[in-house]
Amino acid sequence: MAETRRLGTLLFPDFELLDVCGPLEVLGVLPDHFEVVLVAEGGGAVRSFQGQSLVADHDLDECPPLDVLLVPGGLGTRREVENEPLLAWLREHAQAATLVMTVCTGSGLLARSGALDGRRATSNKRAFDWAASQGPNVEWIRRARWIDDGKFVTSSGVSAGIDMTLHVVAREIGREVAEEAAWRIEYTWHRDADVDPFVEPRR
Amino acid sequence: MAETRRLGTLLFPDFELLDVCGPLEVLGVLPDHFEVVLVAEGGGAVRSFQGQSLVADHDLDECPPLDVLLVPGGLGTRREVENEPLLAWLREHAQAATLVMTVCTGSGLLARSGALDGRRATSNKRAFDWAASQGPNVEWIRRARWIDDGKFVTSSGVSAGIDMTLHVVAREIGREVAEEAAWRIEYTWHRDADVDPFVEPRR
Q1: Which among A37, A121, A195, B76 could disulfide-bond with A57, CB atoms 3.0 to 4.6 Å apart, if both were Cys?
Q2: pLDDT digits (tens, 9 = 90+) for B121-142
Q3: Which pTM value belongs to this model?
Q4: What is the secondary structure of A178-196 as a DSSP string?
């Protein structure tokens, strides 16, 4: 019997919709492995940058212990890097978790909390310099679909979060479960973290 | 100046999260072209099959006129094909709209309403026979990432909805806008509707 781990996904105003819903599409159908909860300052409905709102299960202050933490990106990160209570929450929960994942500029937000200090990480290619500037003590790697640094797994922009999540499923549960999950959602999984088609300028 | 079209996305309990959030990730950043609203019986928060809830903007009965209709799939379609008021709503709004898109088993639900009669359509490969059984007067095409039948554009499973949406953006707005949208979300767009890696059994 698999051990079910509680995965907390942080929401904030103007989070990027697919940064959250890509990974959760994959993880949401593995209930033996992951119990997914959404967490946001103040709880309740939180509006994405795209305009649709997801409903948070918990306020930051009443969040149950998390085994896994998922931090999305989106334009809202530009505001949240100035949000000291949120940064303190991130520091605390990133330390307590056994696995921390970020998508897109979520790595910039997490880096600003200090939690990525001394770690290797990547981010969205369009906002890479901004993300990198949030964590001067992080080893930033530009060319990567995702970076697996053990406890911390960070992905490139938006859709790369799906590839990273499938990698985490393969690593933590098994390759076959990840392949089946990708097939179920008819997703062509980019299995190689080193192949990054978006690092070059668009032709 | 582009004409903004109102796009209504139907929600129902146990909709597939990415069927909705994939297309809306693309369309949600084209506000000059699409005003996106979420519609559901009773309005309010609607729980996806993955467990996370999106917040509907309108009840079915108070839905404003829609130029474009998006119907997702998910296990909830199995229940909704018996929901006569919903089927009547779909028939009416599919007729009134100038463009109707479905993702995954959303085509089965729409077919059950009769709106796809005489049209070419596709669906999820895992639930293809079920979807096809909902519309005996539809020309069902199994091998397709999506089917463009003019007013009705239907996609294969889950992730295929992103490819279909990019195709619709290219068709309705312009190829360059679609290419830029795909790049922005670091998504490797499957540009060829006839290439369908998921129609064969998984190796």
Answers
A1: A37
A2: 999 999 999 999 999 999 999 9
A3: 0.97
A4: HHHHHHHTT------TT--
